[in-house]
Amino acid sequence: MGRKPPPSPAARAGRLLLLVLLGGLVATSASVFLVYTFSSRVSSFAVEHEANAPSTTPASSDAPPAPAHTPVDDGFTLHPEDHVYREPKTIYLDWNITKEQRAPDGVVKSLYLINGQFPGPLVEARSGDELIVNVHNSVHDADADAGEGVAVHWHGLTMNGANDMDGVVALTQCAIPAAANLTYRFRIDDSQSGTYWYHAHSGVQRADGLFGGLVVHKPANAENAVAERATYSYDAEQLLLVGDWYHRSAVDVLEWFEAPDHYMYEPAPDSMLINGRGSYNCSMAVKAWPVNCSAVARPETVLQARRVRLRVVNTGVSAGITLSLSEGSMQVITVDGGHAVANDTHAAQSIGVLYPGERMDVVVQQAPSTTATARPEHGARLIVTLDKENMNLHNFALTPEQEFPLSWASSPPKQASRHEKGLAVSELNLKDLQGAPLASSPAGLAKPAETAVLYSAMTIRGANHNRPVATVNHTSWVVSEPHKPPLLALDRAQWVDAIKQPTTAQKLKVPWIKETGKERWMELVLNNYDDKGHPFHLHGYNFYVVRSQTAAMGLNRGYNPFDKEQADAVAADVNTKTPLRKDTVYVPSMGFVVLRFALDNDGLWLLHCHVLWHQAVGMGIVLQVGDVDEGAKRRAGQRCLA
């Protein structure tokens, strides 16, 4: 037979096209098969590990569409859309705490990391979620403070029904020793949402970086989250952790503060950090304390929308702060754990003073003139001003005003929004804030059944080798034995010998409020007999601040509610209509505050100053509310023996 003639070029091209198409079809089929197989395996893995977790299907048909922009994952931009439309669930976290060399502002320092991060990982949840956090202490024995162990406190969460999970060494738990772990397990109360944070409550480790952000989103429905976002018309949420920073180890700084020849002057910070970053001028380092320093640029804060809900936490150790914008404005909407302020609160360019431990949520409005790509030499700035209180010793490397570049990811508006027109003022003093009007004032708020009076002071005691001693009602909370059983694990009769006092003239005192209940309210009066103010934090509770009194120059304005003349004068001027609700309150120098709250959370709760140096020398007291839960007592003891 004769050989067939070769195919024409057109025929060859057709066959080649057919082969390419067939090859593509086979490859596509194989890819689909592999994707299906992999997806099935991933789904099986997820089902196996999340079998007991509630569905995350949106609980509301009002769920918004997915955002058009790419979600930002910088560790500080929040994702409420992942939480507000789902049912409560259990969130599992596994944390490994180490101590390593880092240079957050250009100066090398040994600081605490959680899973390699500083600040620690951002925790986002919603009301009603259960958190299970396994904390492993991998701090090496070679570290100077490794013997202290570690512990984590959940600042602002009431820990109702979980007193033993509050994270306070010597009170609710033993410190977690090196190479050991502890699992914190607790449920966030349905009534709690807002800006919180977690931090060390062991030694002075908070000053060495053991802290992070915790945001509890309010579930969305017609009454709360949706209405809140619509009311203030913000388009994004971000976290701002801002505070002072020391280059020396916290143990060394505390030793300096306690030295007899330093006369209780608080050590001046070396730097300021925003979300764990700062910039130090290496040429200003003091020769007596040489540092390993490299020049770094000032960190820039990039806001993700024209109107951003900025959740601000003062994570600092000593200094109160005021935040200011060179362009734009801020409006406070909540304080501490999401407690609303009055709707007519003015927007301002400058807001303060925010003391250590306090939080505020502000809506930041971009100014029409701001350029989206503005640089610091001609653009917007975020200015952090350190309050002069606790700053009597000057550090010339740290000017009172610290400026950080600020920019917006969005293009600027052409004109001022309806939220900004005619509303902004230059400054807003946080002490002048009013709370949102109470729809119905609880009877106990006006007439509390219980009254307690506390007196705080700081002195230099000869009996303590001329070192500073802080007291509340002549008792000091100083932890010297972090691995011994905590008070929660002991009988009340054993408490007096469990916490050593700075002098033999003192005894540990634990006031006991025996009668409790949701309808039984208490008035707590905090008198400050010190020439400096103190931001006090109460664990286990939030409270209404119905009166705050600043002393006149040189005068003490203490308040004894059992003195009828004083009580009548104060009663005429308490605010039970629009009081602020908080968990951390500033008590003015030589002044007092009056707090009221329902006694609805039995347990042992610490009340202490959040200036870490004051807390470390004893400014704290334990309150026993109701009876100690036997289950919590047993668990606290068992964990200490483990």
From TrEMBL:
Signal peptide stretch: none
Gene3D superfamilies the UniProt entry points to: Cupredoxins - blue copper proteins
Signal keyword on record: yes
Record bears the keyword Repeat: no
Keywords: Copper, Glycoprotein, Metal-binding, Oxidoreductase, Signal
Biased composition (Low complexity): 53-63
Region (Disordered): 53-80
Top-rank taxon: Eukaryota
UniProt xrefs under Pfam families: Cu-oxidase, Cu-oxidase_2, Cu-oxidase_3
UniProt cross-references to CDD domains, sorted A to Z: CuRO_2_LCC_like, CuRO_3_MCO_like_4
SUPFAM superfamilies: Cupredoxins (SSF49503)
GO molecular function: copper ion binding; oxidoreductase activity
Plastocyanin-like domain residues: 97-220, 239-365, 516-626
Recorded family membership: Belongs to the multicopper oxidase family.
PANTHER family in alphabetical order: FI03373P-RELATED (PTHR11709:SF394), MULTI-COPPER OXIDASE (PTHR11709)
Protein name: Ferro-O2-oxidoreductase
Organism per entry: Purpureocillium lilacinum
